[in-house]
Amino acid sequence: xxxxxxxxxxxxxxxxxxxxxxxxxxxxxxxxxxxxxxxxxxxxxxxxxxxxxxxxxxxxxxxxxxxxxxxxxxxxxxxxxxxxxxxxxxxxxxxxxxxxxxxxxxxxxxxxxxxxxxxxxxxxxxxxxxxxxxxxxxxxxxxxxxxxxxxxxxxxxxxxxxxxxxxxxxxxxxxxxxxxxxxxxxxxxxxxxxxxxxxxxxxxxxxxxxxxxxxxxxxxxxxxxxxxxxxxxxxxxxxxxxxxxxxxxxxxxxxxxxxxxxxxxxxxxxxxxxxxxxxxxxxxxxxxxxxxxxxxxxxxxxxxxxxxxxxxxxxxxxxxxxxxxxxxxxxxxxxxxxxxxxxxxxxxxxxxxxxxxxxxxxxxxxxxxx
Length: 370
Ligand SMILES: [Zn+2]
Known about the structure:
The protein is α/β, with parallel strands linked by helices. The protein has helices at about 35-40, 50-65, 80-95, 110-125, 135-150, 160-175, 195, 210-220, 230-240, 255-260, 265-275, 295-305, 310-320, 325-335, 340-350, 355-370, and strands at about 75, 100-105, 125-130, 180-185, 255. Helix 3 (about 80-95) links the parallel strand 1 and strand 2 (about 100-105).
């Protein structure tokens, strides 16, 4: 079987001596010793308030909410590693009456479905499935449009519609069913800004305006995107809104336990969820964030076209805070981020009716030009 190591994409990229981030990472600069500008910035030290404070906060909200409620909180549950752990945490650590909400879409691997069922059964949590047609429709259209003229920045559009589900559909369900708390698994360390920053292209400043300008440019370079105005609208929402200003008295109240209260420790996550029947997807030859084929595809093509993806960014940060050596990180990235070409080929064919080789020929041309 042919194994695509994914690292062949760009061979002559300069990388940071310390964290190994490449020179094509948006906004990066190197000093004379080859250390990048991100490493030069001081990494913020986060202080966590602790579990007792978290429990107090939760109780305060529950006290003020409808006594006849059926559930205390909602967890968005993709079946992936992180949300599985969050579900365990809500049920067994915080001891809340939790409803898991899974956004159903066409790109869910079989193993993910099994994980959702296993974990919910063993934890004794009910799962509510809500169809996210936005991802099915817009996500698919965007991948097909992208394939006409592959551009690394526009890999961001593969998951168009997913955020809509997370930001709109899940809170809406909680609101309508009087569930007062929404638990989310964000950590202070996720840095995926590069994905939207890539859109800015030649604009050196990463602002809302340059993102929109850059995005518009990409659309006109590949007008196939323009055939689907509803997808474009969803993308714009993905890139620039949803976050916005914090409103007061929002229902449900969002709590991020691993942002402000307790440190997220990766080495505790996998063993814990495995106890509840969570398993790696053996067909994917990768252990990494493999709960959605659209995301998997996106990561594959970032790597193929840029030489890096979320995994590199994640480990660069772990190197910076001294949690892993550069050497070990490189090994991990190699192991975890390896996708067999056959798998990608099959996903493209089955889910998008696209031909791997045709796309790859276009990518080759793109890489030669750039
Ligand atoms: Zn660096």
